[in-house]
């Protein structure tokens, strides 16, 4: 493995850079589109470099975790253990039970009108399902990745990209609807209360407040005050 990495360091580095950049832009595009897709034009090359570094660090961390855990999980899955499926079923039920119960409670309280269900709870359930599917895919295809089966690798990257889009939508819904931290933003001319910061760049600040998305120059910000919001009882 080390010998292969050494001989193909340049090519692998280019692949990692391209993959990290693509996934970073995908996450940002889906996340910002949840508020206003035109916010993507606020991002400049310097901002993209910061996001790229974050994406690369995240990919490296995930690679190290998967490289340590997935092989062992694959060996455990391939064994003929009588209680294996019972364990997976119990784990899946424990994972999805909270969002399913929350959605059921909302439906019951809203007269079974699905349009009134919180988008965050639906997306959270989708994120849990996507995470489970991603773990299962990595576990089952680990050996094919080591054998450099490019068809499988491309298909898995596509699945991973779809999962990233779901995660980005869930995070955006959390920021907009569920975040327990609200901020008061004071500018040179006015004050915005009960805001949620969408994007904080060196040149612009985008935030959400009372159903509207505002974009102001960062230089106009005088003070930002954060305060925890009391969760609904």
List keywords for this structure.
single chain; five-stranded antiparallel beta sheet; 233 residues; 5 strands; flat; 2 domains; alpha+beta
Strand content: 15-25%
Distance between the amino and carboxyl termini: 54 Å
Q: What is the alpha-carbon Rg in Å?
A: 21 Å
Stretches where pLDDT is under 50 for at least 5 consecutive residues are none
How is the largest sheet built, in terms of strand order? 4-3-2-1-5
Report the sheet with the most strands, covering strand number, pairing sense and barrel closure: 5 strands, antiparallel
- Quantity of strands, as a count: 5
Helix-strand pattern, N to C? HHHHHHHEEEEE
| Structural class estimated from helices and strands | alpha+beta
Multimer state: single chain
Percent of residues in helices comes to: 55-70%
Mean pLDDT: 77
Specify the overall morphology.
Answer: flat
How many discrete domains? 2
Number of helices: 7
Molecular structure report:
With 233 residues, the protein is α+β, with helices and mostly antiparallel strands. It is built from 7 helices and 5 strands, in the order αααααααβββββ. A 5-stranded antiparallel beta sheet has the order 4-3-2-1-5, with helices on one face. The chain is flat, with a radius of gyration of 21 Å. The mean pLDDT is 77.
What's the short version?
With 233 residues, the chain is an alpha+beta fold. The chain has 7 helices and 5 strands.
Helix/strand layout:
Elements: H1 2-7, H2 9-33, H3 45-78, H4 84-109, H5 119-140, H6 142-146, H7 150-178, E1 181-187, E2 191-200, E3 204-209, E4 212-217, E5 221-228
Helix pairs in contact: 2-3, 2-7, 3-5, 4-5, 5-7
């Amino acid at each position: 493995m080390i010998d292969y990495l050494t001989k193909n360091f340049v090519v692998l580095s280019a692949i990692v850079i391209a993959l990290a950049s693509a996934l970073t832009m995908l996450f940002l595009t889906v996340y910002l589109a949840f508020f206003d897709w035109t916010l993507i034009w606020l991002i400049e090359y310097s901002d993209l470099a910061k996001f790229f570094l974050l994406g690369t660090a995240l990919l490296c961390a995930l690679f190290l975790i998967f490289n340590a855990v997935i092989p062992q999980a694959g060996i455990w899955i391939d064994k003929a253990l009588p209680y294996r499926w019972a364990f997976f079923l119990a784990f899946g039920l424990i994972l999805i039970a909270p969002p399913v119960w929350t959605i059921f409670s909302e439906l019951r309280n809203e007269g079974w009108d699905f349009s009134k269900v919180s988008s965050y709870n639906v997306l959270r359930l989708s994120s849990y399902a996507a995470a489970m599917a991603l773990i299962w895919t990595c576990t089952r295809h680990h050996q094919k990745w080591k054998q450099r089966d490019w068809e499988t690798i491309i298909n898995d990257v596509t699945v991973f990209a779809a999962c990233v889009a779901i995660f980005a939508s869930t995070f955006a819904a959390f920021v907009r609807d569920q975040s327990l931290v609200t901020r008061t933003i004071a500018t040179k001319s006015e004050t915005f209360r009960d805001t949620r910061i969408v994007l904080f760049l060196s040149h612009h600040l985008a935030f959400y407040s009372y159903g509207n998305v505002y974009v102001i120059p960062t230089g106009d910000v005088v003070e930002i005050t954060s305060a925890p919001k009391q969760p609904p009882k």
